[in-house]
Design brief:
The structure holds two protein chains of two kinds. By secondary structure, chain A is α+β, with helices and mostly antiparallel strands. Chain A is built from eleven helices and 14 strands. In chain A, the strands form four sheets. Chain A has a five-stranded antiparallel β-sheet with strand order 4-5-10-6-7. In chain A, helix 10 runs antiparallel to helix 11. By secondary structure, chain B is an alpha+beta fold. The termini of chain B are far apart. Classes of the chains: A alpha+beta, B alpha+beta. The interface between A and B is medium-sized, with 24 and 30 residues.
């Protein structure tokens, strides 16, 4: 479990990092927390010719920025997990973080790193998709912002160009009459989810559904957005939850592996959908 | 001589043996000062090895071209099967097969992960780069993976010389089996499958090897913990006398649970690599290697039958069992089938037994010791069968258990296949378990939950925990004629040395190579007690050096043999030293030897503590002033004792064998609820009551119970070395091979109902493996009860349990 030979760069600034990525756009990988990349390199599953270690570039702030909560490239998951600001501004993130790996991995792993890695079983892409987060991709060519729906392309593949760095993730702030819920199922605490689900439910003043986002993880090559349009304009009662949860299990086309069959994943998708929809519904009313 | 005063009764002194003394080993381990294999640097200029492994389950090696690897700067040597064939011979094994087993593939590979070549290089990075540069051409062959496939007459044999994948077959009958089945009211039959799983020590295998070409001696450091009979197997494979294979074991081994016994083929492989490369070589196995190519227990298929009376009495048992040893029969296999041979009737009085044993080879990782070795497979069959007998007869399981459980008056009990159970009060232990579990309330809770539509179940298991293996038991695999033609084997010999240096400091040297169990602590307790010296002042050396340590073929850490066997060797060595100290003290104090009391660092006159001499001075005399010693007393203080149990005889002419030194007992009760949505099994409570005889140190006993329990939970709910039908490894990383962590541990309640063993000097029985044997079937019984099904397969993963729930629901619909 030793990596194949690679060149190592440690830029001291964001500009220097972007220069390196531009210069070596053919095969440079960004190293932040290294909790996925280094393991993959040690198993020689990843063999980047160059590693650009950004740990010295200083991008480690997380705070409200205008109408969003911005998390920079080097912010560790454990810092977010312990932050009251995150709990208040992005409650769904706060709820999901304890499920991301283990305390030990979260102390090194970054949020942006997990998003850029785009593991189909990971929790944070599901959260980002459910919230409609935006990804700020920086390069020497400039900065562009990509919506989560477009950012996650497929397994371990994002919209990031080879010369781009995921500089910041921008999460919408907690809104009124809006409920948030996350749930996952894994055999052991801290494992990648066999299936996960996140719900964001915004209610109108009259209690009917204004907008509902139900997103599943672990059942597709990227976060799976369940079509919940039919729920709009009506209260989210038990029957509606049941119908949507069933739909979640039906609409996906999951894989089978050692952890469970496709049928089992469909079952979990429905079960977890039911759970997050009920919890988000409760949460939204509590806010209202 | 001054007349001795009248003898008052000696003041009662609490024995150190049996006290919950904190572990001597822990301060160093907890502060990062342990010395493990990768911490030792015995040789200058040590190079690093990496092993090229087969990606195929079954293939012929057409050619190996290592020229590109040699071209990499820093590469010193590439060793292949040709070198291994030239410098070694196949490992010997205790059963007659025609399977040549070398430490490296020669012409064919037989499992994914089998060593094909070794690169020796300046560092491990370069060595792994070089592995990628070796060009091996394989000719792919169809794999045989499942036991059912291996049993099929047409299945292509892995080893052509054998001609079949059934490589061993023996049948045994004890008592009137036919009569019992003819007289039975009912015959209850089950078919069970038990999965392949292993242990996951934090420290993986490690070997540092050198070849002293001047002396013609292989000097190897490795985290090998015996059985040291394997030293003879290794020396034989390397074609050297025992004194030309010097094995050092570092002071600390980072866990094993049996698995590290099988570092031995790698000791030979790295010894060959060092010899060919001409430099010392270090190899530390990585986790990927460990998960696909270290060792595991067997997967087993069993067809079992019980002849029963209507009241639940079991008259006879018939077992038809097939163990899958993987690609080779690797010593000490076929012990998987024979360790429990004398004990297959478990805790029950079953007078007649028939056993049909078969061993198959498949394209999977070879097997060996794994905490509980053979016990979890055996009890899975027996305790599932007992549960099924109860179900068939419409009796409570407890009634069937009690009906057949051995009674106090049955001891010592001679089990039909040969085991001699030393002592126990199984009924009392079971009662204690029922009390601790609050059994009636548990039943009420289960029934109430069921009434609410929940899936709840109770599992019960009563098992016998054998410890201190008889070195003769594996030979039961041989037909009697073959056995008689060879050298018979018996006993469970262990050795220990106790010495006192010229300044009076006490050192104990062990042959047990502990892996974290706390042997140093207990050894110091025993020696401190026998010599009357301070516990803290005693040094216990766990490092092994086969050239200078006390050891014998049974030495090592396995079969829970420290408490019953090694402790006695330590005590006897300490008693030899004590006798010498008494002799010198008697001479100095001018009293009779039997009137010398050793306590508080002094030898004093019985009844007159004012007349005393420090033990330090007595030992000093033996070193500094030998002419002052009493007649017949040799200089120095250095005593070694070897200990075995006479009860452990070689198998007899009727194929009976007492497979283990002593036999503990466990009664377990667990309660589970199942989440119908996800299939997750929640173990709500688990009670285990143990009889391990005299507890030498209750802290260590409970530590062993917790560890065995965790391992059992792994086997019950998480762990399986799964293979695809094409022979590929499906659980090759710790993200796929799931082991329970602290988060997954259910609450455990421990009870003790001990009956000291009359067969061991200290009365102790082993306790390290029992729950690894019992937990898988006890949880399976509970889940079967909760789901109302007859067949449950381990591990009971959520997906698997949910599939049963769905099948049940479809059947109802």
């Amino acid at each position: 479990m030793k990596p194949a030979p690679f060149a190592y760069h440690r830029p001291e600034s964001r500009d220097e990092a972007l220069d390196l990525l531009a210069e070596h756009a053919d095969g440079a990988k960004v190293l932040a927390g290294g909790q996925s990349l280094v393991a993959a390199m040690n198993m020689r599953l990843a063999r980047p010719a160059r590693v650009v270690d950004i740990n010295r570039i200083g991008e480690d702030t997380f705070a409200q920025d205008g109408d969003a909560f911005a998390v920079s490239a080097l912010v560790r998951q454990s810092d977010l997990e312990r932050s009251p600001a995150v709990r208040d501004a992005v409650p769904l993130l706060h709820e999901a973080l304890p499920f991301v790996g283990h305390a030990q991995t979260r102390s090194r792993a970054t949020l942006c790193g997990s998003l850029a890695h785009a593991d189909p079983s990971a929790e944070l892409p599901v959260v980002a998709t459910a919230l409609g987060a935006r990804m700020e991709c920086g390069s020497r060519r400039g900065t562009r912002t990509v919506a989560a729906d477009e950012f996650f392309v497929s397994s371990f593949t994002t919209a990031l160009e080879p010369d781009e760095l995921l500089a910041r993730a921008l999460f919408p702030l907690r809104a009124a009459r809006t409920g948030y819920a996350f749930a996952e199922f894994a055999e052991r605490h801290g494992d990648y989810a066999i299936a996960s689900a996140a719900a964001v439910l915004r209610l109108r003043e009259d209690g009917a559904v204004d907008e509902l986002r139900l997103v599943l993880g672990g059942v597709s090559d990227r976060p799976f957005v369940v079509d919940a349009h039919a729920c709009a304009g009506r209260p989210l009662g038990e029957e509606a939850i049941e119908t949507l949860a069933e739909r979640a299990g039906r609409d996906i086309d999951p894989h089978s592996d050692l952890r469970g069959s496709a049928a089992y994943r469909r079952q979990l998708a429905s079960v977890l959908s039911r759970r997050v929809l009920a919890a988000a519904s409760l949460d939204a009313r509590k806010e209202g | 001589m001054i007349p001795a005063p009248a003898r008052p009764a000696a003041p009662p002194r609490p024995s150190l043996i049996g006290q919950a003394i904190a572990r001597k080993e822990d301060p160093a381990l907890l502060t990062g000062h342990g010395r493990f294999i990768d911490d030792v640097s015995p040789f200058a200029n040590t190079h690093h090895a990496a092993v090229l492994r087969s990606p195929y389950p079954h293939a012929r090696i057409v050619s190996i071209d290592a020229s590109a690897a040699f071209a990499i700067e820093g590469v010193v040597a590439v060793i292949t099967g040709r070198d291994v064939e030239r410098l070694t011979k196949p490992f010997s094994v205790g059963v007659e097969t025609k399977i040549p087993f070398y430490c490296c593939a020669i012409d064919k590979v037989h499992y994914v992960g089998e060593p094909v070549a070794v690169v020796v290089a300046r560092d491990r990075y370069i060595a792994e780069d070089a592995l990628e540069a070796i060009d091996v051409e394989y000719d792919d062959l169809p794999p045989v993976v499942r036991i059912e496939d291996a049993l099929r007459p047409g299945s292509a044999p892995l080893h052509e010389a054998v001609g079949s994948n059934v490589v061993h077959r023996r049948s045994f009958a004890y008592g009137d089996v036919e009569g019992a089945f003819a007289a039975a009211d009912e015959i209850v039959e089950i078919e069970v499958a038990f999965p392949k799983y292993g242990s996951t020590p934090i420290e993986t295998y490690g070997v540092i090897a050198n070849y002293d070409s001047g002396a013609g001696t292989y000097v190897v450091h490795a985290n090998f913990h015996g059985p040291f009979v394997l030293h003879a197997v290794m020396a034989g494979a390397l074609r050297v006398a025992g004194n030309h294979l010097r094995i050092h074991v570092p002071p600390d081994i980072g866990g094993s649970f049996g698995i590290k016994a099988h570092v031995y083929p790698y000791i030979v492989l790295l010894a060959v690599a060092a010899r060919v490369a001409g430099v010392p070589v270090r190899w530390i196995e990585d986790r990927l290697e460990h998960l696909q190519a270290s060792s595991s227990s067997t997967d087993r298929l069993t067809w079992a039958k019980a002849a029963v009376k209507r009241d639940g009495t079991i008259l006879a048992l018939a077992l038809d069992q097939v163990d899958n040893v993987g690609a080779y029969v690797r010593a000490p296999e076929p012990a998987c089938l024979y360790r429990m041979h004398g004990t297959v009737t478990g805790a029950y009085k079953i007078p007649a037994v028939k056993i049909d044993n078969r061993l198959v080879t498949t394209n999977k990782l070879p097997t060996g010791l794994n905490r509980g070795y053979g016990g979890q497979e055996q009890y899975f069959t027996l305790e599932r069968l007992v549960a099924r007998v109860a179900k068939r007869l419409n009796l409570p399981v407890l009634d069937v258990v009690r009906r057949n459980l051995l009674r106090v008056e049955d001891f010592p009990y001679h089990a039909a296949p040969g085991s001699v159970y030393d002592a126990g009060d199984y009924g009392r232990a079971l009662d204690a378990a029922l009390r601790l579990a609050d059994y009636d309330a548990l039943v009420a809770r289960r029934d109430a939950q069921r009434a609410r539509g929940k899936h709840a179940g109770i599992g019960i298991g009563c098992i016998v925990e054998p410890s201190g293996s008889n070195m003769g038991y594996v030979s039961i695999a041989l037909p009697r004629e073959t056995r008689d033609a060879g050298l018979p084997k018996s006993g469970c010999t262990e050795a220990a040395t106790v010495a006192i240096d010229p300044l009076g400091a006490v050192t104990v040297r062990l042959g047990t190579t502990p892996q974290g169990q706390g042997h140093q602590t207990v050894a110091a307790q025993i020696v401190a007690q026998e010599l009357g010296v301070a516990f803290d002042a005693i040094e216990v050396i766990a490092e092994m050096d086969t050239q200078t340590s006390p050891w014998s073929i049974a030495s090592g850490s396995y079969s829970s043999r420290f408490a019953p066997v090694a402790s006695a060797a330590i005590q006897q060595a300490a008693r030899k030293v004590a006798a010498k100290l008494r002799a010198i003290a008697a001479h100095e104090l001018e009293i009779a030897r039997e009137d010398v009391v050793l306590a508080d660092g002094k030898a004093s006159a019985l009844g007159d503590p004012s007349r005393s001499v420090p033990i330090k001075r007595l030992a000093g005399l033996a070193h500094w002033h030998p002419t002052a010693l009493p007649p017949g007393i040799d200089p120095g203080v250095y005593e070694t004792a070897f200990f075995s149990l006479p009860i452990l005889e070689a198998p007899d002419e009727n194929d009976k064998v007492n497979s283990s030194a002593v036999y503990g007992f466990i009664a377990d009760i667990c309660y589970v609820e199942i989440d119908a949505d996800t299939g997750r099994v929640h173990v709500e409570s688990y009670v285990t009551v143990h009889d391990c005889g005299t507890m030498l140190n209750p802290l260590l006993v409970d530590g062993q119970i917790h560890g065995g329990f965790a391992h059992g939970i792994g086997g019950a709910l998480f762990e399986e070395m799964a293979y695809g039908d094409d022979g590929t490894v499906l659980a090759g990383t710790l993200a796929d091979y799931l082991i329970p962590t602290a988060t997954e541990m259910p609450p455990l309640t421990i009870g003790h109902e001990n009956v000291p063993s009359p067969f061991t000097p200290l009365g102790a029985k082993g306790v390290g493996e029992g729950n690894a044997m019992s937990v898988p079937v006890v949880i399976a019984n509970a889940v079967a009860d909760a789901l109302g099904v007859d067949d449950v397969t381990l591990p009971l993963t959520p997906a698997r349990v949910w599939a049963i729930l769905r099948t049940n629901a479809e059947a109802r619909a």
